[in-house]
Structures are given as structure tokens and as C-alpha cells.
Amino acid sequence: xxxxxxxxxxxxxxxxxxxxxxxxxxxxxxxxxxxxxxxxxxxxxxxxxxxxxxxxxxxxxxxxxxxxxxxxxxxxxxxxxxxxxxxxxxxxxxxxxxxxxxxxxxxxxxxxxxxxxxxxxxxxxxxxxxxxxxxxxxxxxxxxxxxxxxxxxxxxxxxxxxxxxxxxxxxxxxxxxxxxxxxxxxxxxxxxxxxxxxxxxxxxxxxxxxxxxxxxxxxxxxxxxxxxxxxxxxxxxxxxxxxxxxxxxxxxxxxxxxxxxxxxxxxxxxxxxxxxxxxxxxxxxxxxxxxxxxxxxxxxxxxxxxxxxxxxxxxxxxxxxxxxxxxxxxxxxxxxxxxxxxxxxxxxxxxxxxxxxxxxxxxxxxxxxxxxxxxxxxxxxxxxxxxxxxxxxxxxxxxxxxxxxxxxxxxxxxxxxxxxxxxxxxxxxxxxxxxxxxxxxxxxxxxxxxxxxxxxxxxxxxxxxxxxxxxxxxxxxxxxxxxxxxxxxxxxxxxxxxxxxxxxxxxxxxxxxx
Amino acid sequence: xxxxxxxxxxxxxxxxxxxxxxxxxxxxxxxxxxxxxxxxxxxxxxxxxxxxxxxxxxxxxxxxxxxxxxxxxxxxxxx
Lengths: 514, 79
Description:
The complex is a heterodimer. By secondary structure, chain A is of the alpha/beta class. Chain A is built from 14 helices and 27 strands. The mean pLDDT of chain A is 92. By secondary structure, chain B is mainly alpha-helical. Helices cover 54% and strands 0% of the residues of chain B. Chain B is built from four helices and no strands. Chain B is globular and about 35 Å long.
């Protein structure tokens, strides 16, 4: 049994395969050695316990190596989505005062041209590094590690994951080593992951479930097969080539992958289970899953970054309860509460709250936001007193068996392509374009994306039309792909409430009725 | 309507914000286009070319560059 307290200790020194990246196979012993060497480089560049080190790489062996290297150095890993724009990367680098960054040659060049933030002392480049004393190529990493593991305990910060908040800018959720290790233990237990499993890693490590998948793999000594290319044909090929047994994805992937498998009659005999998280799969696709993947367990999961992982629906319930969230995962407790009803029971709905060791440490540098999200629950005072719980902001309904069903968000957040977006974030970027006067962003049901982002806008000047082309171009330059609005609704004026504020529900209703 | 190189370059430059993108730029193998972008790209190609792209044709061999996409569309149009 792996008795790890910290993420670094999840690596066991064996000759078993840990990571497969295309034609590259890396054993646990090699992964440990490579990560130790990169940790050495980081320590040599002045990285100390608790310092933030960001990773901005596409899915690759180097990304996994960098992750464990950061933990070995006692530092905090901040994985930034490869899809994020340079403006978003710069935001993260400044927000949590990142001291070192691991990135690719193209992004290092661009960063060099923009200018490095003052706090950023060292950049390790996978490939050639620009001529800058703060930047170094991967070849600069020593062949043999010379420093010891930097000791931390399970309460120490291990990772910061950036997620959208309802107030606009992304917030960094702080996860401790305990959150990561116990999260891996819980998920590995209910999925019954074994050392001979090979798990397909398509999800990014900046997504809580993607990171959890890496850690469940290493916890049990299984192999992680990296899949950087999202095409269904390529995914199927990798599953077949490497005899993948487990596959985790988000709804936009299932929407493409399941019809592909069904249409082409592709057989994936090695596959033992698939899991979904990050939103609801459209019903038509859920119904196709047993037929497309005969004999494969389908496990539906739910989690929010602030509590890492929360609920799961056991596969034996899938046929009867397609689309349900299920109940709390091992060693976590989830309740549904309502200000009037108290603790909700079957047939009632309210907000999901999560309690347990997976509750995160809150938001980096934002104690007020943390106190609003993670706080005692009056409805549970008789059970757990003042212990803080995570308030999910998700409204769920409880069925007669006690299983949860997702109803909607409390705060108008948009869940698009597995990402949580705040309308404010979209609106702020639209305003920054100076091409519009007023803007309302909202989510519209979409089979492929869960929800698609739409915006309603008014012209910047009363005497001129909105320059749609320029606005679209601006969005694409300043937003990650999933945030770019799918539709722009031009309005002559925004309806107002009595108090003079924009009547958002009416704007949304008007746009949806055409 | 026929799908042309110029139209595809224009579409993908617009979508990715990469002004230097051309017919030889790799779209998927270096992460320029993600899964959401892929779905949009297929819809665009289908509407321009006037026929549906079969799921099994969506492979790296057929889609990683604009040149390859044009070759696929030309061979399917000839069938």
C-alpha cells in the first residue's frame, strides 16, 4: 500500500511504466530521476519551499516531469492551460507571484518579447531558450540530481488551479498535498484502479480531474498514456495501440467520440471503464454509450475545483440513472441545503455543500472570496458545528434513492466545454475592446459544449453600427477558445430594471426569442 | 461552393488569431486547434465543400495542415 503524505511520495522507485508519450516510455524510476534533476535545477535557481512555479506546456512527458520536480523542490505547481492567451498567462504569473516557469520555446520567445514580470526569476525552456540570463534550455538541467527532497508536510500547499470566479478575473484555488493525495486515494478506491491499468490522459493537468487522474495513476503504480490530440480517430488509435483500460473525458469529447465509435463500428476490447466529469453529457449521447462501448463501465462524476472531487454514480446505476451525479465519493460528505428547508431530503432541491479532507485551502491572496466560498453551514451546525464546508453554487435535486441530479448554477456562471466561466469575465474583455457600449454575456444550452457563450451588445456610438468583424477578431485575440462567444446579438438598447440596472434576465430572454 | 486554400487560411487565421498561419502550419500536432476548434473547422469545411466529412476521415493524416485538408476534400469530391 502506498502511504504517501505528499504528492512527491506517490512516485515509487520501480521499473514499471509510468508515462507513455507517443513512442516514449518512461518508467517510475526514470520519472523520479528526471524530476529530481529538474528539481535540482529549480533549487539551483533559488526556488525554495512554498515558491510558486508555473508550467505552460502542452500535454507531454516534460509536463509530468516538471510537475513532480516542483513537488520534490517543496514548491507549488501552477499549471496554466496551454490554450490560454499570453494576457491570461501574464495575469497568473503576476497574481500568485510566480518565481519560475517551465514553458516551450515559442511561448518563451513571446514572453521575452513582452518582458518578464519582475517576480519571475527563472524560465526553463523545453527546447532552445532565448538569449536572456533568466532563461535556460532544458539541456541546462543537470544529468545527476545533487540535492535532497525538500521536506514538506501534507498541510502544505501543493498546487494552485486557476478557475473563473463570479467577480471576473480567474482565481487561484489552493490545493494542499493532503487534498491531492487523499483525492487520489478516494478516486482510485471507487474506480478500483489496479497496477496493470493503463489510463488515457486527455484532460489537461490544469483541470482538477486531469491532475487527479495523474495522481491516481501514480498512487497505484499504473501507467498514464498521454493523448495530446483530441480527434476521436486518434483517441481510438491510442486506446487500441497501448491497450488502454480507462479513459476520462468531458462532455465535448464524448459528443464526438461516442458517435465516431458507433458509426465506424470501432471495437476497443482493452477498455474497462470510462468516466465523465465537468458537466452533463447530452442524453442522446448517454443513450448511445452502452451500445458504442459494450461491456465498458460508465462512471459519471462531479467535482468542483474548490473541493477537488465530490460525487460519483456507480456504473451499475448508469442504465437506470443516466445523467445523475450520484452521491459523495469515499471519505467525503455532500449535503443539499436550503435556507428554508434546512437539510434537504428526497424530492427536494437546494445548494450542494461539500465537507471533508478534499476541501481546498481557498483562493490565493483573496481571503474575502475564500470566506464567502468556504464557510460554516448553519443548516449543518447540529452535525458538524462550525466546520467550514465548500458552498458549490450548484443547485441539485435529490431523488428517492438519495442520488443527486444537477439542476443549474445559482450565480449565472456559464459551464462551457468543461470550463467554468463568469459572464463578468467575458463582459470585461468585450468592454476592453471599446467596440461596444454595453454588454451582457450568458450561457445557452448546447449539445456539444454543455453551454455556449453568447453576448448581447449595444453600439459604442449611437451613430455607428457595431463592427462585428473587429469584435470577433478582438475576442479571438484576447480570449481562450472556449470563452469566445458563439453568437453576438446586437441590440439597439438594453432593457433596464426600475433601479436603472440592465435587466439581465430580459436581455437573455429577448436574445433567445430571436 | 468550392473550398479554397485562401478561404481556409482566412478562416483559420481569423479563428486562431495567428497571422502567420499558412497551408503548411500544423494545426493539431502542436495544439494550435483544440477539440472545440476542430468541431467548428469540420462544420466550416462541410459548408464550403457542400458535402459531409465522414468521422473516419477526421485523422491526423487528413487534417493536420490546410494542404492535407484540401487533398482530402479534393479526393472525396472526385468520388
